Amino acid sequence: MTSRNRRILEFVLDNLVWFMLLFVLAAFSAFVPNFFQIGIFTNIIEASSVLGVMSIGLALVIVTGNMDLSVESVAALAAMTVGILFCSAGIGMGVRLHPEWLTAPVSLLIAVVVGGLVGSLNGYLIVGMRMNAFIITLASYIWVRGLVLAVSGGRSAQDLVPAIRWFGIQRLAGLPLTAWIAILCFVVSSLVMAKTPFGRHLIMIGGNETATFRAGIRVKRNLILAFILAGGIAGLAGWLLAIRTSGATANLGVGLLFNAFAAVVIGGVSLKGGVGALPGVYAGVLLLSSINTAINLMGLPANFTQVIHGLLVLAAVLLDTLKQGIRQRLA
């Protein structure tokens, strides 16, 4: 294979998800009634905000060759914490700070700190205690979701105070601020991964942890920080989730983990670590959101939706395996 053909093939592999997204949008526009509308495309971007932010944190861990199954439950815990403190109905306490504008940033800080604390525990057990990432984060997925049930008693918090709900109501260029927050998160995190030593070190760790350590890079510190960031970003996703639902319920966000996992892998982040870019993850999130929107427009039963989501996760793993095989032959 010539060097020119090799570069073309590598470009296609790196940007495959964007071609998939364009193909799916074109196909749905042609064959799904009422799909080709500005309002539909706006809804796709808006609906992808929570999943998109959660996928960023998950991608930071997966690119190192690890796994974090707790992000869904962490987001639910952050949302419930915000709901209990800042909702005025149900089990909400209706806290309002003075001046009023302080309520939103303080609630966001609380959500991020809650997520970061769970992430730091995961990082300490996995990196510091050398325990299995899959088992530890699976345990966190279970006990954190149980904590949500325990603190809420199975009840819901409703009616967020206006200072927080404003972010879901206010629009800029046709999109709610929650969608712009997700887009901003992708832009910032993409720059961090591509342009900073920390981002490059995470990719190096996923590629070869031993060689990275021998190069003088502090592997443990970077890995712990990746888990803390994953938890904190999941907390931010929980804050956005509370805004979208104007409150929180005990089963809030159930199923988001599998969609985030599919978006990350479809977006080009290898399960083996060392390969991946966050812009592709955003394309993966938009792809899943587009498919969900088309399913709703076609009026398919909920059972079919579950089947399609399961097949998407399977397709994501198969796609990752196929791309890794091609990259190995190119090496």
Any key phrases for this structure?
331 residues; mainly alpha; three-stranded antiparallel beta sheet; two-stranded antiparallel ribbon; 15 helices; 5 strands; 74% helix; globular
Task: Describe what this molecule looks like in 3D.
This protein is 74% helix and 4% strand. The chain contains 15 helices and 5 strands. The chain has a 3-stranded antiparallel β-sheet with strand order 1-2-5. It has a two-stranded antiparallel sheet with strand order 3-4. Strand 3 (171-172) and strand 4 (175-176) form a beta hairpin. The radius of gyration is 20 Å and the shape is globular. The protein starts with a helix and ends with a helix. The model has no long low-confidence stretch (mean pLDDT 90).
Shape: globular
Helix content: over 70%
| Series of secondary-structure elements, N-terminal to C-terminal | HHHHHEHHEHEEHHHHEHHH
Strand coverage percent: under 5%
Brief description of this entry?
The protein has helices at 3-14, 16-31, 38-47, 49-62, 71-86, 103-128, 133-152, 162-169, 177-195, 197-207, 209-214, 219-245, 256-266, 278-298, 302-330, and strands spanning 87-90, 157-160, 171-172, 175-176, 247-248.
